[in-house]
Amino acid sequence: MMYSLDEVALLPSLHPTDINHRSEVNPFDENGKLPIFVSPMTCLIDDNNYDEFRASKFIPIVPRHIMPNHITPNDWIACSLDDFERVFMHYDLDELHILIDIANGHMRHLYDVVSEAKSKFPDLKIMVGNIAHPQIYIDCYNSGVDYVRLGIGGGNACSTSVLTGIHASHEYILRGIRTARLVINDEKAPKIVCDGGISTIDRAIKCLALGADYVMMGKMFARCEEACGYITQKLPKKRAYYGMASEEGQKDLYNKVIRPAEGIKTEVLVDTNLKKLGDQFEAALRSAMSYTGCHTLDEFHHNVEYEIQSTAEFKSYYK
């Protein structure tokens, strides 16, 4: 049985904790960032606003075909599998962070390419995706993948599940990957990045509590003043939001539509900014960690228990 994130309810600590205030917990990763990736979408990030996103509490990924100035080894860069294989593999990639940005992470060729790249550039960090089955996580590990995105068809601007019927909920995949991680039993196992349809802070926190190391979000950042998507309405201010497989996304990448769209364009209300959103997310994550008795993100990823709640129960508190 698959359950949505809205059907998941996190449970507080079963025993009294020594955390007296949420300021005592650490919601940041080893680089001092919140465990949130900004999706590499051209309606969010371009070469003009990348520095603003990089200075925030979040982790931006440069979209395909965009190359801002002053890229550092710690920055994440997205590229297609074709570009990675034909272009990037001919450069010195050590110490770079690259997302091979494709929708279907279930292709054997992807992992053959990753294995070859890691043999040439052992310090290269690679993120792949998207996958929707725990068994593929083991293939990611065997090929040397460092980060893997979970989720197919769940994005707010994605229509893959509607068109193909292919879908797996985050709760279902994470439940299986918890088992796969126990089988692997290696601290070098790929880090988990939940992706698709995580448009609220509570959904993001639930993914982290279910075992994800990171979450990737798009729609929430389209609400920020700093995003680059074009404005569709001035009062109240609204912005176009679309996935990279939509017609608009394909035009941004290729100047034309090259395949049938698997995404739609919507509008979002511009009602926040990166500073406000970062502070809000940090406060909520600190609070969740203190409720569950977790001092660090690692504890939060592995020790929180949850139950499945009814739709009526969810509606009773989600005002």
Description:
42% of the residues are buried. This protein has a single domain, classed as TIM Barrel. The strands form 3 sheets. The protein has an 8-stranded parallel beta barrel with strand order 2-3-4-5-6-7-8-9. A 3-stranded antiparallel β-sheet has the order 10-11-12. The chain has 319 residues and is α/β, with parallel strands linked by helices. Helix content is 34%, strand content 17%. The chain is globular, with a radius of gyration of 19 Å.
Layout of secondary structure:
Elements: E1 8-10, E2 36-38, H1 50-54, E3 59-62, E4 76-79, H2 81-86, E5 97-100, H3 108-120, E6 125-131, H4 134-143, E7 147-150, H5 160-164, H6 170-184, E8 191-195, H7 201-209, E9 214-217, H8 219-222, E10 231-233, E11 238-242, H9 247-254, E12 265-269, H10 274-291, H11 297-303, E13 306-308, H12 311-317
Helix pairs in contact: 3-4, 4-6
